[in-house]
Amino acid sequence: MADLASPVMSKRTARLAVVTPLANERGVIDELVARVMGQLGPADRMFCVFDRVCTDGSVERARELALLEPRLTVVWAPENTCVVDAYFRGYREALSGGFDWILEMDGGLSHLPEEIPKFIEAMAAGYDFAGGSRLMAGGGFSGPFFRRMVSRGGTILANLLLGTRMRDMTSGFECFTHAALSRVVAMGVRSRAHFFQTEIRYAMHALRWTEIPIHYGCPSQSVGKDSLSEALRTLWKLFRERRKGKSDGIERGKSDGAAVDVRGDEHPGADGMRSSPGAGSVGP
């Protein structure tokens, strides 16, 4: 496989959009944007999504950066009511721009922009979905023990109940083809908190997928009881629907002519290791 470690210098023609919801990240936004831009080609774009949760001037600073960097688009979405709304607004902006691949990542540098080339390599190999994994060989999870156990436990439980075989079912660093993400947006999700990532991975398991080892830094100790309760309720509903589908002879995800690879083999080299140009601000 060709070396895609420097996507700016590669002959890649597929256009990548990076979707990053942000809140109060004034202290790191300059560094975040600079490091992401270092991984992008001239036709790629970064969408930073903000809403009323942002109160520290991050959106104003992002708009200043967008005046200097034509590959940065600031999306103002005051209608958002939760983190899921922020991600889906970013998805829709990237899809409407006609990008070939859409990569989502967290703000605050909990995900490393320098790992973006791994996702580019996977997508170039023909996968529909590449999911970042903190829990596979080569990956890492730096943060409170309780958060790590929630991620590991959630992955084990999701795989058991949903019949999936991914090694990380809760990460939010992942990349989609335009068609795969269009499917996610059309289907929607039930969750209004971070469990929506697991719902997405459940849907992507029916397509041709792979996992990418990533390194994640989590500064927060807490996981809200409401979020955990919602995750368990939603997981149980998905499990019951899956059982009903089996009893009705329905096999999830194999409609619409989707490419199917339930093996989830890693792309070569995986174990070694988010419109047209122009500054913009979407919204008021």
Write the layout of secondary structure elements.
Elements: E1 16-21, H1 29-37, E2 45-50, H2 58-68, E3 72-76, H3 83-96, E4 101-104, H4 116-124, E5 129-133, E6 140-142, H5 145-162, E7 174-177, H6 178-187, H7 196-204, E8 209-213, E9 215-217, H8 225-247, E10 280-282
Parallel strand pairs: 1-2, 1-4, 2-3, 3-10, 5-8, 6-9
Antiparallel strand pairs: 4-7, 5-7
Helix pairs in contact: 3-6
Short summary of the structure?
Helix content is 36%, strand content 15%. It is α/β, with parallel strands linked by helices. The radius of gyration is 18 Å and the shape is globular.
Radius of gyration: 18 Å
β content, as a range?
15-25%
Structural class from helices and strands?
Answer: alpha/beta
For the largest sheet, list the strands in their spatial order. Answer: 8-5-7-4-1-2-3-10
Order of helices and strands: EHEHEHEHEEHEHHEEHE
Largest sheet: 8 strands, mixed
Mean pLDDT: 83
For the terminal residues, how far apart are their CA atoms? 44 Å
Helix count equals 8
Shape annotation = globular
Tally of structural domains = 2
Low-confidence stretches: 1-9, 249-282
Helix content: 25-40%
**Overall strand count:** 10
Q: In words, what does this structure look like?
A:
The protein has eight helices and ten strands. Helix content is 36%, strand content 15%. The chain has an eight-stranded mixed beta sheet with strand order 8-5-7-4-1-2-3-10, sandwiched between helices. It is of the alpha/beta class and 284 residues long. The protein has two domains: 94 residues, Spore Coat Polysaccharide Biosynthesis Protein SpsA, Chain A; 159 residues, no CATH class. Helix 3 crosses helix 6.
